[in-house]
Specification:
Number of helices: 0
Shape: globular
Helix content: under 10%
Bound molecules: zinc ion
Number of strands: 4
Length: 58
């Protein structure tokens, strides 16, 4: 992952959808990218932005 100038969100933590609803549906809140990697941890889906690496539980 490259260093980006997207410093609004910390990419090392997982944001909760309830606390951080999508600003734009289907888009990363941090960089606006629309491609994600989805992983499942327990019953929680983690959506990771492929561009900036922001994580959000959905
Ligand atoms: Zn992003």
């Amino acid at each position: 992952m490259t260093e980006e100038n997207y410093n609004v969100y910390n990419t090392s933590i997982v944001y909760d959808y309830k606390d951080h609803p999508n600003i734009k549906s289907g888009r990363c809140d941090n960089c606006g990218n629309a491609q994600f990697k989805i992983s499942v941890k327990g019953f929680i889906y983690i959506r990771e932005c492929r561009n900036c690496g922001m994580n959000k539980s959905i």
